Amino acid sequence: xxxxxxxxxxxxxxxxxxxxxxxxxxxxxxxxxxxxxxxxxxxxxxxxxxxxxxxxxxxxxxxxxxxxxxxxxxxxxxxxxxxxxxxxxxxxxxxxxxxxxxxxxxxxxxxxxxxxxxxxxxxxxxxxxxxxxxxxxxxxxxxxxxxxxxxxxxxxxxxxxxxxxxxxxxxxxxxxxxxxxxxxxxxxxxxxxxxxxxxxxxxxxxxxxxxxxxxxxxxxxxxxxxxxxxxxxxxxxxxxxxxxxxxxxxxxxxxxxxxxxxxxxxxxxxxxxxxxxxxxxxxxxxxxxxxxxxxxxxxxxxxxxxxxxxxx
Length: 312
What we know:
2 domains; 10 helices; single chain; 3-stranded antiparallel beta sheet; Arc Repressor Mutant, subunit A; 9-stranded mixed beta sheet; 39% helix
């Protein structure tokens, strides 16, 4: 007798490239996964996965069966999603990965509003500045900020918003050290830098009319944490380059002001990344749609990142 759970678990084991990773992503015992796959192999009377203590390999027959099993699982999920969509009833888990800065300043309030609107959805937020393997980590959606085009991969990348970076400092610091009037004045000022690696110590400034200039800097303080850098700037330790949206509250309070407002230190893109190997579950679809509807309007440079919200 066919058990659709065997298909579901087998697909996850193949995609996670191992029983341990799949068990972690599914939050279930590894032994249970192994029993499902063993039962599947026994029913089919064929070896799908070669596994030892040191090796994991999907056989040729396993690769072929995976393609068919994936199609079956996707059809089942699509059918269930169609029914739930009619009732607007979404239940389940979404694993969302994002950087520390995005978590603290870009989507914190948005996520809380999403959870209030969808009490049946459980969101697991993985906050890290590391570039992780989405499939291996069991991630459904990831928000990545990048200045340059992300390398091609099997993941689907969609533009979420464009965000400008700017130079900021406290009014007290500028009162003591003077307001820079041109980019070269920055060389006479104290600086702070996002990122702990002391490489490429310069600000790349672009004027709103298109001219560019690189200014070397000697930061006193390096940090991966934008919150700490904002506080350091507020306490008069120097000028720092940060995404403008991270400083909105400080601008409103008057604890930080723009330095050289006609110049920006970059324009990053926030992209929403989804693994392409699976159709999305209803909770993933719901959060995907919500992020496209709200993130750009909340922090983006323009009012609409795309003319239409793409579907998964």
